[in-house]
């Protein structure tokens, strides 16, 4: 799975969209990066830009944007209501998919170092990327703003983390950080009362509500020894919230900012809001996502509600997302389109997965055509996907079998494993064709000069090695699927035991077919240590698959024939 991060730079220009267009054009020059949003503010004289992509491409796009901003934004002339101290004021990176915060921090610091060294802009690292506890706080880093920067930056305690410790009069300074993904999330109520919506928000938000003596509404406000108001914390961490009335919809909402969805996920916020609303005689009718959400957050929500129903979570991604949408009531106020709201779907390469997007007839026709791809490798991957799909089907049927209610979780676990293997094998259907195309592209490189011949040979070798690695993955995943198929033959719904048997035959075919591709591609690779490793391990996998196939078929025959 690809690693995806989001970048949300704030530029000190919100009135001249010609300037901002020059900056966002730089972002869009980087392949693999998708510009999602440009949100200018005239009063603040500030524009928030959002883009996503692979980490390496995102920090390249961010650097180009910061560079262009340093060329065309002059902080000496800047005025605005929002706190700021630089042309690119802040530049946070946010982990979205398949990447940890620790990895994101490394990318943030790499970006900060490059900005500091190549552009000679002082850079302070904040939030999770901070090197010191006090610099985690953005307000602390930006204290004094641009106007106070010339005096502040020469003080030892204000030495930038990267870049020169001297005042950059035109560009100011930049804060580069790594922070968690923030989800703007509104919960719909069957009331028009802002006061009641606020009360529920105070119940659940981390800050809570002001503490009062006696009566919680009219009592005297409690203050500490410094004269500050004392708050009674709410029930959810990393949540900010207020209540408001939305005239467009004619209802009150609880408006929440989920500042760390790994601490408080969307479904937890929804459930807690529903609980606290019910305690006040109010019903939650649905919810609304403002902006985008990572795929994992929707998957987690869907699986949560399936488990709550004691149903298998080993169903397709589409089904899980459908459950999440319906359970959270995301289509309560208007249609919810996952392709437009889930980040990974929004940035997906439309050319990706060409084969698996075909219907069965088109796929068969494409395979039967005069084109050399898809070939045996793609077919092996698809046969493997069909095999494990049968095992997953048996697990799901077993999970819902009458009289087996107490075993739903056991079979749900098997089905979930099967879905993961199926998804990987489906991906490998197209990846095997991509690997073949890489070889063809390498053979098409020029071979005139000695350098060109050397580069061409190297490209062919690398492509051929990759064309070994892909079918080898098919082998390992198909063998892994046989554990599920054996378990379903032994303990699954007896009425579907033949399906487990057919799945085992498919899995063994996938292993043997993929191994043929490993062997034929190995013949063109010079590095024999590399090929011998895959050939040896491949032979072992093939033997294990054949042995497991015999075991599973024996179990199936015994159950069908009673032998």
Mean pLDDT: 93
Domain count, please report it: 3
The CATH architecture designation of the largest domain is Up-down Bundle
Name the helix and strand elements from N-terminus to C-terminus, one letter apiece: EEHEEHEHEHHEEHEEEEHEHHHHHHHHHH
Number of helices: 17
> What is the CA-CA span between the terminal residues?
45 Å
* Oligomer status: single chain
Shape: flat
Structural class: alpha+beta
- Output the CATH class name of the largest domain: Mainly Alpha
Radius of gyration: 29 Å
Low-pLDDT regions? none
CATH superfamily caption of the largest domain? Formiminotetrahydrofolate cyclodeaminase monomer, up-and-down helical bundle
CATH topology of the largest domain: Four Helix Bundle (Hemerythrin (Met), subunit A)
Helix content: 40-55%
User: Main beta sheet, described?
Assistant: 7 strands, mixed
The strand count comes to 13
Q: How much of the residues is beta strand, in percent?
A: 5-15%
